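Project outcomes to date are best conveyed with an example. Our students and postdoctoral researchers have been running inverse folding experiments weekly, and each run begins with a structure described purely in tokens. The record below, which covers 378 residues, was selected by the lab manager from last quarter's runs and is presented without edits.
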């Protein structure tokens, strides 16, 4: 067999890609599996978004930078919801999802052997992309006792000279923790001091969160930080693949240098749909969050039944639960899958600090969540 590239040595197939095959085979055997693992919104996007796509009649290649109208809509969205001023001309780059942005940014700045600060627990793509580029992940601990915020004093004691990028993700997935303004300020000061690019991955700020925040609203942020954002969770458009990267002109230009060599623009109709989404009023989020908060009530009851603890103040599309001490995350997950036909995510998927936790998604209707509650209560 043709030997594969060296860069694949440290990259495994994505956890969900493997596990969902197992879940699929159980479903094929007739098991009534309820999937609480994946964060793909089951609710529909706004109707105006779908109509905008339907009415689109242009099928050619599109600009690498996206329609100016889309970048203007992103700029107004950032002004309206986060109080951040951005130039639509050079501080905004639409992406095909924020996941792709993690690759673009990494390709733009990392050489083999560079180091990257990555949260543990955290979104697995930060480390897989780092490994794909033959750079080295350096994990920083997030713990419940530390309110899921890094101990920057401890981190500063390490040799950080090879670190180029620090990934942060507030509101944090999987824990649902948010960062305060003061914490963002400390992160920016840290990035300045250690001369690294700080990237806040921010796809969850509108889900069950009263105070959406962008790191770019902090004074001096654009000097050292980029932000990724996405329509996947805010507008139930995960399959549409619309994200964005925002920050200083020089950084955006560098990311475009990579991206313009990777794709040939976003389909016109999708951009039109994205514009319609970004123009939605506040009541869209209120409506969406009413649904999620009802679901979360049941998820809390499921956790109570499983003797798990959780933080009622956490935000986002998932609820992070601490499991009883005598169990491991994967053993409990497998027990729930095989004994109760319920699929959820073991915390270890997100790193070693996820041991002792599980993650439940809110992308399932109340009736199904009640069915899960009934199953685990028996
Ligand atoms: C923390 C985090 N970042 C990025 C993404 C990717 O989102 P998108 O659909 O915009 O690529 C996800 C999706 O699950 C996520 O949880």
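After processing, the design step wrote out the following sequence:
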């Amino acid at each position: 067999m043709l030997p594969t590239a060296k860069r694949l040595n440290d990259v495994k197939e994505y956890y969900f890609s493997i596990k969902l095959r197992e879940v699929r085979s159980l479903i094929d055997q007739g098991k009534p599996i309820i999937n609480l693992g994946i964060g793909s919104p089951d609710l529909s996007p706004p109707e105006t978004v779908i109509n905008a796509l339907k009415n689109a009649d242009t099928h050619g290649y599109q600009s690498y930078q996206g329609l100016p109208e889309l970048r203007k809509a992103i700029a107004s969205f950032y002004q309206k919801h986060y109080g951040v001023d951005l130039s639509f001309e050079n501080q905004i780059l639409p992406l095909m999802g924020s996941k792709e942005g993690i690759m673009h940014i990494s390709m733009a700045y990392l050489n083999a052997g560079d180091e990257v600060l990555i949260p543990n627990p955290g979104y697995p793509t930060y480390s897989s992309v780092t490994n794909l580029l033959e750079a080295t992940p350096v994990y920083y601990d997030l713990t419940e006792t530390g309110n899921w915020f890094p101990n920057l004093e401890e981190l500063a004691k390490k040799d950080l000279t090879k670190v180029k990028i620090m990934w942060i993700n507030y509101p944090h997935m999987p824990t649902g923790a948010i960062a305060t303004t003061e914490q963002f300020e400390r992160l920016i000061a840290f990035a300045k001091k250690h001369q690294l690019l700080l990237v806040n991955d921010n796809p969850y700020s509108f889900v069950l969160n009263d105070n959406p925040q962008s790191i770019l609203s902090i004074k001096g942020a654009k000097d050292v930080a980029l932000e990724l954002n996405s329509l996947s969770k805010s507008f139930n458009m995960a399959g549409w693949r619309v994200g964005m990267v925002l920050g200083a002109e020089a950084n955006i230009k560098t990311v475009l240098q990579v991206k313009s060599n990777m794709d040939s623009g976003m389909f016109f109709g999708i951009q039109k749909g994205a514009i319609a989404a970004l123009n939605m009023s506040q009541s869209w989020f209120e409506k969406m969050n009413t649904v999620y908060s009802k679901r979360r009530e049941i998820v809390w009851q499921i956790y109570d039944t499983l003797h798990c603890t959780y933080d009622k103040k956490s935000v986002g599309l998932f609820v992070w639960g601490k499991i009883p001490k005598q169990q491991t995350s994967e053993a409990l997950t497998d027990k729930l899958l095989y004994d109760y036909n319920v699929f959820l995510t073991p915390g270890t998927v997100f790193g070693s600090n996820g041991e002792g936790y599980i993650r439940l998604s809110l992308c399932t209707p109340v009736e199904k969540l009640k069915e899960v509650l009934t199953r685990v209560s028996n």
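The two ends are 50 Å apart (CA to CA). DSSP finds 13 helices and twelve strands in the chain. The training component of this project remains on track.
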